Amino acid sequence: MIDKKEILKKLPSSWDTFKLKDYMKCVDIEISEGHENEIDELLSGLDNTLSVISKLTDVSIKELELLDFNFIHQCGTMLSFMTELPKSVKSCSIKWKSVEEVSYNDFVSFLTLSKDAVHSLPEIIKTFSKDKFSDDEINEMSVAEVYTGFFMLRMYHRKFLNRLIRKEAMHLIKMNLKIPIKLKFKNRKKK
């Protein structure tokens, strides 16, 4: 007999309680959507819900289908947070390496890992975090924290690139100012 309380205990109720290890279990679930009528849409939604519950609780879909509809609906309501993106958390334990701290090997690793970034999230965190996290520590991070960490990384790189662009623009401006001046002096000497 399936213990409903155990199922509810295993289900996250927000991005803050959804652990990365559980998210990784759900990555490959094929979500069906866009059906022609309401009944197909409802059944598809139930199938999606059962697939997610099954992955998170290690209870087979066949066993879940034997449970009452109200319980499955309750589980689906708990998981409804998944229909929206996570919100950033106020503090994040992931502190990223600066561009200057990234080694050549790290860069090559990134090129490899970025080909399948979603499946590589734990390895990306491990490689590019300043702090050395264990696999267990990474797996226990909430999806909201990981999302915030990647948002912060994106903001850091955007600032870095903007500084680099400004620096290079100033360099080009200086070069353009020097070139015409040199040309003028060369022309004077020839006369």
What secondary-structure arrangement, pairings included, does this model have?
Elements: H1 4-10, H2 20-26, H3 38-57, H4 61-65, H5 69-78, H6 104-113, H7 121-128, H8 135-139, H9 143-190
Helix pairs in contact: 3-5, 6-7
Structure description:
By secondary structure, the protein is mainly alpha-helical. The protein folds into 2 domains: 4-83, no CATH class; 99-190, no CATH class. Helices cover 63% and strands 0% of the residues. The chain has 9 helices and no strands. It starts with a helix and ends with a helix.
β content, as a range? under 5%
Number of helical stretches of at least 4 residues: 9
Specify the overall morphology: elongated
Terminal Cα separation, in Å?
101 Å
Question: Which terms would index this structure?
Answer:
single chain, 191 residues, mainly alpha, 2 domains
Question: Summarize this, please?
Answer:
The chain is an all-alpha fold.
